[in-house]
Amino acid sequence: MTVNDDSFTNWKNREEIAESMIPIIGKLHRERDVTVLLHSRSLVNKSVVSILKTHRFARQIAGEELSVTETLPFLQALASLDLGPSQIDIGMLAATYKTDDRGLSVAAFTAEAVAGATGANKIERGEGRDAVLYGFGRIGRLVARLLIEKSGSGNGLRLRAIVVRGGGDQDIVKRASLLRRDSIHGQFQGTITVDEANSTIIANGNEIKVIYANDPSEVDYTAYGIKNAILIDNTGKWRDREGLSKHLRPGIDKVVLTAPGKGDVPNIVHGVNHDTIKPDEQILSCASCTTNAIVPPLKAMDDEFGVLRGHVETVHSFTNDQNLLDNYHKSERRGRSAPLNMVITETGAASAVAKALPDLKAKITGSSIRVPVPDVSIAILNLQLARETDRQEVLDYLRDVSLTSPLRRQIDFITAPDAVSSDFIGSRHASIVDAGALKVEGDNAILYLWYDNEFGYSCQVIRVVQHVSGVEYPTYPAPAV
């Protein structure tokens, strides 16, 4: 047998193992509200090849590839436990098991590591929480995809309605088509049908009412059986407490804005300050995509090295706010053709840092350049640190943060030397540290942070919504603090 034959046989064996994992992962998700992760990446509804690629990706972070032969025993051990709603990272289970010297079996080690999600300790499954989307643009449709994806067990968030302004003939058919196909993010994973007579989109069995209204005051949510719902405003039309309060009508309990909030509206970056949300707070903001990209690594760097001052330059993909061709725009430069120009513009991300990190004493400045790509941006974070360090120390620290810290869902880490922006389309992290581009000299560090300003941000929005709705489940093994 040749070496090539050996490699092919090994691949086929791993395919078979990955195939055997799919029904276990699916059953845990549907029946117990358990999301199986691998180094913070969900394995729910993933194909055989996707599961194998996710295992291989661990090599970029941990230095060596993780095999399905290593993780399958942990998955089998989970299936035998009386688990409650939770997120369980089998990559972390396998990694921590390797360093454990007590001689425990995989089953015993797993039971101990996830004890908080079993027996008397487990969270009881609830009835789920209604969600409503106000607006159905770029972020609205991606948030809709995520809500539908996460409704597998029926006990989490349930997208009940979308509120839009009427758009003429076949409006609902056209909106369903935009949900079904996306030029950047690809096909919707599942099936979508339209019931025009009842103004309903059915996506993977989820019945979503399309409500037409020009103003929040026109909608009676209780007429559609919606109660105690989280409303996600994707329009950006109202950004202060007074404006957003218009949404607080019968059936709506809380309002989450997918843009920076003004005045006293809390700006929340999940992973950094979501635990400061008061239980009775009804209105909050998820800040901007760039704020979500820079605040987690900024916090991580301040925690370890101290940050005295900094500047962020964002090289940002163009957005619908800009013109396709030169035309009038209320901003000076955004009227110039977005696909043909680099456009200097402002960013509020630097000033928003103070809201998310009130204890950070450093002054952070910022500016932005819009460039002719439709998605994925990069933030260049130039920091003066409180102590001197070197490139390797910063790399090792950020790699560890992406693997084991409470910020591991926000910060990713990549070592690929040929990575470019399109490689990060669909990333679920708030930002991705580009290891090859990192520069450190004495007390100065320059971080290059990729981020999918559409999908990665939408994932952060969903995490905030899960938190305030009470369906954000604990992760095991618990991240290092």
Automatic annotation (TrEMBL):
<protein>
    <recommendedName>
        <fullName>Glyceraldehyde-3-phosphate dehydrogenase</fullName>
        <ecNumber>1.2.1.-</ecNumber>
    </recommendedName>
</protein>
<dbReference type="GO" id="GO:0051287">
    <property type="term" value="F:NAD binding"/>
</dbReference>
<dbReference type="GO" id="GO:0004365">
    <property type="term" value="F:glyceraldehyde-3-phosphate dehydrogenase (NAD+) (phosphorylating) activity"/>
</dbReference>
<dbReference type="Pfam" id="PF02800">
    <property type="entry name" value="Gp_dh_C"/>
</dbReference>
<dbReference type="InterPro" id="IPR036291">
    <property type="entry name" value="NAD(P)-bd_dom_sf"/>
</dbReference>
<dbReference type="GO" id="GO:0006006">
    <property type="term" value="P:glucose metabolic process"/>
</dbReference>
<dbReference type="InterPro" id="IPR020830">
    <property type="entry name" value="GlycerAld_3-P_DH_AS"/>
</dbReference>
<dbReference type="InterPro" id="IPR020828">
    <property type="entry name" value="GlycerAld_3-P_DH_NAD(P)-bd"/>
</dbReference>
<dbReference type="InterPro" id="IPR020829">
    <property type="entry name" value="GlycerAld_3-P_DH_cat"/>
</dbReference>
<feature type="domain" description="Glyceraldehyde 3-phosphate dehydrogenase NAD(P) binding">
    <location>
        <begin position="129"/>
        <end position="289"/>
    </location>
</feature>
<dbReference type="InterPro" id="IPR020831">
    <property type="entry name" value="GlycerAld/Erythrose_P_DH"/>
</dbReference>
<dbReference type="GO" id="GO:0050661">
    <property type="term" value="F:NADP binding"/>
</dbReference>
<comment type="similarity">
    <text>Belongs to the glyceraldehyde-3-phosphate dehydrogenase family.</text>
</comment>
<keyword id="KW-0547">Nucleotide-binding</keyword>
<dbReference type="InterPro" id="IPR006424">
    <property type="entry name" value="Glyceraldehyde-3-P_DH_1"/>
</dbReference>
<dbReference type="Pfam" id="PF00044">
    <property type="entry name" value="Gp_dh_N"/>
</dbReference>
<keyword id="KW-0560">Oxidoreductase</keyword>
